[in-house]
Amino acid sequence: MSAQAQRRRKRRRGAGVAQQREGIALVLAMTAIAVLGVMLADMHESTSTAFVVASNQRDTLRAEFLARSSIDLTRMLVMREPAMRATIAPIYQLLVGRPPPQLPVWVYADELLGPFCNPDGANGGLDAAGIDSAAVEGLGHIGGSCSVVAVAENSKTNVNDPLNLNADQARNSMAMQVFAMTGGYQSPSSYDPLFERRDSEGQFNSRLDVISSLADWWDSDQERTQFDPGAATVTSSGGEEEIYRRYRDPYMIKNAPFDSLEEVRLVRGITDDFWATFVQPDPDDVRSERITIYGSGAVNPNEAPPEVILSRLCSFRGVTEQPLCMDPLEAAKFIQLVRTVRSIFPVPFFTRSSDLIAFVEGKGGPKDLYPLLLAMLGPESPLIFRPVTIPGDQRAGVDGAFVTAARILTIQGEGRVGRARVRIRTVANFHDRWTPPPPNAGSMPALGIFHYYRID
Predict the structure, then answer these.
(1) How far, in Å, are 53, 57, 289, 390 from residue 45 at the CA level?
(2) How sure is the predictor about 62, in pLDDT bands with cuts at 50, 70 and 90?
(3) What does R_g of the chain's alpha carbons equal in angstroms?
(4) What pTM was computed for the model?
(5) How far apart are CA 315 and CA 327, in angstroms?
């Protein structure tokens, strides 16, 4: 082979090697681009996720403080109620003939606090009223909104150890209220089917079983409570924990007052049906609750639903046997009449408990509620219920069973920012006679103290 042919052969071999190297480089470059693309996509996803999480945490924090603000503003509103009452006292005195009771300002908290909780929507009303919202400090855009609902705890039936009663009096008072609330004095009652079903443990729980179990949970003895609704008495006999020992997951009775409403679920007979009927018919609306564990056992007739007023009234001997408590038609008249009056006159009518007693007895002057309704509707109106007669030996008890001021309130605030929602539920005490437990000393703060605080 000539030298020239050898050189041509070497050139062809070198060209082949170069082409092979170029192909490998292309594969390496494509592989590197693919790896970098995956890394970039992963980095982009991680960064986006971190950004969304951080944004949600930011919005959640802002929503929580909006909810806190709505609760604190409501507490300030309650604190200023005496000054508001003094302002309207002359007008109320002129119309009703007596001084006004405590004003339920907490009921209107959501509307009154609109400029603070929802300035974008509420400031238009201020501007229409001639108030320059832009010039008011603190009413600007807050990046979210809040709302608040407040309810007086003494507008419900108390199933806890009453603060103003002791021993058998406390158990008997609670038992008669719950018996009336669950339709025990009516035969038949629409609530009877609730006490004819087995619970999750396969047990039947009568109306009296539930009432006895509620009392046994917070009384201090180890004996089972026996409630006699006919004689309106309670006695003790037998062991109170026997039924709980037979549960699949047995536990002991507390023998101390309830600390939270959720604790009531541990009591024998408090089934989901019972809870949905008497405790929380609407879990998202605190205004639907009819049972409380906070309070003295007295009921506020200006705030309580008519069913709660009726069950408290019908928890006294001598009243339970009368048509208002035993006749479902008379009870329905009372309930509908109270609802109608509240829808027409959204002001508290009862200055003191004696005003309610006069109403249910059909007595009072021309400016009192029952005579006023009688004159407006006529004695033959289907809304007018048959008045009751309160026995003399029960009058003091009935008078003490109702109060026209609320000292303990459930306040539920909700903050909303973007998709974040935070709800805070509190139970606040504003009673001026409250003192801290020993050995602490002090007095009630102006904004009250919390018995319960939960963030969801």
Answers:
(1) 12, 18, 46, 74
(2) very high
(3) 34
(4) 0.83
(5) 15
DSSP assignment of 67-128 equals: HHHHHHHHHHHHHTHHHHHHHHHHHHHHHHSS------GGGGHHHHTHHHH-HHHHHHHHHH
Report the alpha-carbon distance of residue 363 to residue 361 in Å, rounded: 6
What is residue 196's DSSP assignment? S
* Residue of 203, 231, 385 whose CA lies nearest to 320: 231
Beta-sheet pairing, 291-292 with 408-417: unpaired
Q: Using CA atoms, how far apart are residues 406 and 400, in angstroms rounded to an integer?
A: 14
Please state which of the ranges 47-61, 136-150, 413-427 shows the lowest mean pLDDT.
Answer: 136-150
Tokens linked to 326: 């035993």
pLDDT at site 129: 47
Of 421, 409, 417, 418, the closest CA to residue 447 belongs to 409
Pick from 270, 388, 371: nearest CA to 326: 388
Q: Is the pLDDT of residue 135 over 70?
A: no
How far is the C-alpha of 303 from the C-alpha of 111, rounded, in Å? 18
Q: What are phi and psi of 413, to 5 degrees?
A: -110, 145
Facing residues of 455 across strands?
A: 424
Q: Where are the alpha helices (DSSP H) in 182-261?
A: 207-218, 242-245
Instruction: Check residue 92 and give its pLDDT.
Output: 83
Average pLDDT over residues 257-278: 91
Most confident residue range from 114-128, 159-173, 301-315: 301-315
Rounded Cα distance, 173 and 178, in Å: 9
